[in-house]
Amino acid sequence: MIQATQRILSRIGRATLAVFQSIGALILFALTAVSHIFRPPFYFGAFVRQLLNIGYFSLPVVGLTALFTGAALALQIYSGGSRFNAEAVVPQIVAIGMVRELGPVLVGLMIAARVTSSIAAEIATMKVTEQIDALTTLSTNPMKYLTTPRVLAAFLVVPLLVGIGDIIGIMGGFFVSTSRLGFNPSNYIQNTADFLTFIDIVSSLTKGAVFGFIAALMGCYYGMNSNRGAQGVGEATKSSVVVASVLILASNYLLTEMFFSS
To answer: What's the pTM value of the predicted model, to 2 decimals?
Structure first.
């Protein structure tokens, strides 16, 4: 009985130490990536390419996701509000739901699905094929060349995607409400504009910056630390998306608590 207890406690201890070791390694990796932003050289060409890859090429999936989410949200709110004769609140709830929560979270998860997986697979493949070793041989810091442009680009461009997603999501609710639910277009837009506040917009864009940072950082971290071989690439890609998604949802709660706890 004593030996069985010791084995259980030993396994728990090893798992706990492994978790804290991973957290520490991730924090050091993040600090290193951020520190390289402020130290030359800066690879502007790589940065611009990542702006296009993360921002411009993500617009279709972000736009479609936000459009259908806003439209479905309007239908659900109208259906639920009709039980209490509160159908008129559709514009306000769609606006606050998209800007405060659904817009940032859905964009963050779409970026995790599209960008994080791509970054992790690309960098892990470079590691497997020894391209990262070649960069080191050529006196190029892999962290500065591969990680910093991606993290900085995601941090800057994902808030723009969130803003666009918020607008498209609200427009999705607008189209459904005016064409299917009988709302007056001008009144709908006026109610939306009157209900949103400055802090709602700030919180949405702040969440976008944090989510973009997390998504790019997880892709780079797991790509850099992947195991050799095709299995290692697949494992790095899977782990990066899972961890990025969980961290995005967790940080969303923390940011919501910070902005709206009062």
So the answer is: 0.90
